[in-house]
Design a protein that fits this description.
The structure holds two protein chains of two kinds.
Chain A (H helix, E strand, L loop, with lengths): L1 H15 L5 E8 L1 E7 L27 E7 L2 E10 L9 E10 L15 E6 L6 E4 L6 E8 L1 E3 L5 E5 L1 H8 L7 E5 L9 E6 L12 E9 L34 H9 L24 H15 L10
Parallel strand pairs in A: 2-7
Antiparallel strand pairs in A: 1-13, 2-4, 3-4, 3-12, 4-11, 5-10, 5-13, 6-8, 6-11, 9-10
Chain B lengths: L1 H8 L1 H28 L4 H59 L1
Helix pairs in contact in B: 2-3
The chains are: A alpha+beta, B mainly alpha.
């Protein structure tokens, strides 16, 4: 009878004892790198951007601001942010988060922020901090994208749900940052502009972008009851008939480090070098056509003009 | 058909036709440049339309109209020469007739 009672107690202890439950938590995150680009509107033409290396950065906005905007249906600026994910414990799994972008005032360039259609996309390559750079910005990967939501203030903010991106980061994808750019399908003729404060901005009431990251941490298991005291007050052996049941095996931190050090499945090149190509190959024949036309006109203009004799 | 064939065999007629087409292309370039520039408020977008469309169209139009003017002058000179020849031939005929009568 005593052994049966001990067995029952042991089974009860096993049922009650949690086995490494996942504990949800959040951590604040700031940006480590920020850049905004003002690609020349010629990038929207079929001929491409053209040479931009010699162009100086456009900075018609106050220093320390970031911008996303559309002018007459054409993108005029976009912002890249890299979040600091180091606040997430190494053995935790990133599950989601929210990026909050307080919208700056009209003096900083904001106009019609309530009509803004901003989308967040993955950045394909590392980027350097820049303000109003006219250089072609790093490519973006919009297979995973989230639309920013405008919340009127004061202070007005744009919020971005980071859950889709967190899933990819949790799968080991490199954190090259997020791009905030006008959403695809912007109607022609629309114009809006939203400005944000960069983290380096001083003397402004508008705070910089901040994020809250959610993660699921593997909690340390509770210590199981090492001893069972029966009703008679005697100290008995541990459950399972005298076999000591130790704590659940805590995953080794090394496993997470090894997982993080693995190369991603898809390695994106840092930069791609390619020529502009011929957008319209038929234009190759245009010089020949002009040459033939010039030759014919030269011949025709030196022929004697015949006049009908009456 | 014969008249059209004769017309196309004449370098003057064909050159006038080609220059007319070039002038029309110049007008079309100006129209496209104006339409593209008017569609945007951004100066850097308007600039390519102005340079390639408007200025290019104006250049093509000027080129075509200039050559058409040259051709028209050549035609007028040819007609004047032909009339002068006719006058000379008539005078020669009158002179020959006067000699025969004498």
């Amino acid at each position: 009878v005593k052994r049966r009672r001990l067995l029952l107690l042991a089974l009860l202890a096993l049922a009650v004892a949690p086995t490494s439950p996942a504990r949800a938590d959040t951590t604040p995150a700031s940006t480590t790198d920020e850049a905004w680009y003002a690609p020349p509107p010629t990038c929207g033409l079929p001929t491409g951007c053209g040479p931009t290396e010699s162009l100086p950065p456009i900075s018609r906005y106050p220093a320390g601001t970031l911008h996303v905007g559309v002018t007459a249906g054409l993108e005029d600026s976009r912002t890249y942010l890299k979040l600091d994910l180091s606040g997430v414990p190494f053995d935790a799994t990133l599950t989601g988060g929210t990026l909050t972008l307080p919208v700056a005032s009209a003096a900083d360039g904001t106009s019609s922020p309530e009509t803004a259609q901003v989308a967040a996309c993955f950045v394909g390559a590392a980027f350097a901090p820049a303000e109003g750079s006219v250089a072609p910005p790093p490519a973006v990967d919009c297979t995973t994208t989230t639309a920013a939501t405008f919340v009127s203030g004061p202070p007005a903010v744009l919020t971005v749900d980071l859950s889709p991106f967190a899933a990819r980061w949790a799968n080991g994808e490199a954190n090259n940052g997020l791009a905030l750019l006008p959403a695809a399908g912007t109607a022609p003729g629309t114009s809006w502009h939203v400005a944000f404060s960069a983290k380096s901005r001083a003397g402004s009431d508008v705070p910089p972008a901040r994020a809250s990251l959610s993660y699921a941490a593997v909690a340390a298991p509770e210590e199981p009851t090492p001893e069972v005291i029966d009703s008679s007050g005697d100290v008995a052996f541990g459950p399972l008939g005298g076999v000591f049941v130790g704590p659940a095996v805590v995953p080794s931190p090394a496993a997470a480090i090894v997982e993080q050090s693995k190369l991603p499945d898809r390695v994106l090149p840092a930069a791609a070098v390619s020529g502009p190509g011929f957008a319209y190959p038929v234009l190759l024949a245009l010089p020949l056509l002009l040459l033939g036309l010039g030759g014919y006109l030269g011949w025709a203009l030196t022929r004697p003009v015949s006049v009908a004799q009456s | 058909v014969t008249r059209l064939r004769r017309l196309l065999a004449d370098p003057f007629s064909v050159s006038v036709l080609v220059l007319g087409v070039l002038a029309l292309a110049g007008l079309l370039g100006i129209a496209v440049g104006w339409k593209g520039a008017a569609a945007s408020l951004v100066v850097s977008v308007q600039l390519p339309y102005l340079v390639s469309g408007a200025i290019g169209g104006l250049a093509l139009l000027g080129f075509a109209l200039g050559l058409l003017l040259i051709q028209a002058r050549r035609r007028r000179e040819a007609r004047r020469r032909a009339e002068m020849d006719r006058v000379v031939r008539a005078a020669a005929a009158v002179l020959a007739a006067a000699r025969g009568a004498a």
